[in-house]
Amino acid sequence: MVSFMRYRFSDCELDTAAHELKRLGQPVHVEPQVFDLILALAEAGGDLVSYDGLMERIWAGRIVSDATIATRVSAARAAVGDNGKRQSVIRTVPRRGIQMAVPVVHAPHGSEATVTVSVPEPVTPQDGPPQEIRYVRSADGVNIAFAVNGAGPPLLRVGHWLTHLDLDWHSPIWRPLLDRLGAHHTVYRYDQRGTGMSDKDFPGKGIEEFVGDLEAVADQAGPEPIPIFTASQGVAVALKFAADYPERVSRLVLYAGYAQGRYRRGTEAARQEAKAHLELVRTGWGQPESLFLKLFTQIYLPSGSRDQVEHLIQMQLASASAARAARLRDIIDHFDVSDILEKVEAPVLLLHGRGDAVHPIEQSEMMARRLPNAVFVPLDTDNHVPLPGSPAWEVILSETERFLQS
Q1: What positions belong to coiled-coil segments (predicted)?
Q2: I want to staple 388 with a disulfide (CB 3.0 to 4.6 A). Which of 44, 75, 144, 176 is the partner?
């Protein structure tokens, strides 16, 4: 029995039973091959569909010219309200294939349980050149996507659990941060392995591989010592890099991070918290009505606006599958760099919210005591995610700018 599905993405709906594409509720005529191309992308979610895969799917394995493929992709973009310059719905990954750049939600045809996700309005870009997205290969062969924006001396922002280079650029949470950092620096940032636009499948299960990703992107910024801005589990990765390669790091800004993951904090409560968090990720990832999402938003951004919360839903759907998110969560909860803190030579600025329920402020207090050259600024906030417009926002950015320029 054939199973028919409906796929919703951006302002479009694809119905396989009716063999129909709608945009803004109105039917859009597309040729059969264009429909099949859009369907292949929808079925893949945010995963890459290779050009070989497209030929097998749409042309039954026949070899067709690049121009033929490009024509079908261009028609698909036009049908969903996109174009080759914006690539806001269908993205080309050079020499590799194409992928959806927006979340895709699906349900069986006729089901009333279809989940709809409203996508936040893009943040109006500031003046200046757009970001550039590139790829670099880590030491173990994993392709890491990184982006460059801003002007000035380089600044490296370490990848963390939940990023997507393209979505971040239009995010009501992250775009203001990128614009602010890019006002004085050329910002290099990347999606960590397993997430966003980087390779989804990866070997290894320790912090060393994540340090290798950081090193690969740092190499793109040049040989000079570079300041690093990072948050959450990226703090442990940056500290490990700074201890291993002191000549590569000039300064460190560490926001809401930790030296010891939940499994390494020496308490049964922390271990149980890690296990509970992992199970919630496995069962509720990317589901707007799930218990996980409700707890996630209450813990990570208790004072977040509706747009900011909806952005996190969008990010979950696009950044990683539930299985990959759970695997990454398990790995980073085992990070422990507490034994190398004294080896970090670079000056460090630590920022942490007093009410942070994701990683306790005691982790930053411990790091401040043990790092040789650290300044600690506690923040009057419960948010783990730095929210533009919140009282702590200007403190975070002004302290960061002062520290980096001193």
Answers
A1: none
A2: 176
Strand order in the sheet with 226-231: 132-137, 143-150, 186-190, 154-157, 226-231, 249-255, 348-353, 374-379
Rounded CA-CA distance 275/351 in Å is: 27
Q: Are residues 154 and 280 in the same domain?
A: yes
Q: Which of 76, 108, 140 delimits the end of a domain?
A: 108
User: Average pLDDT of the chain?
Assistant: 87
pLDDT tens digit sequence for 39-64: 999 999 888 999 999 999 999 888 88
> Could you tell me if 97 and 237 lie in one domain?
no
Pairing of strands 143-150, 186-190: antiparallel
Cβ distance 248 to 156 under 8 Å?
no
- Tell me which residue has tokens 């329920």: 357
- pTM value is 0.70
Q: At what angle do helices 322-332 and 268-284 cross, to 10 degrees?
A: 170
Residues 199 and 346 in one domain: yes
**Residue 240, domain extent:** 132-405
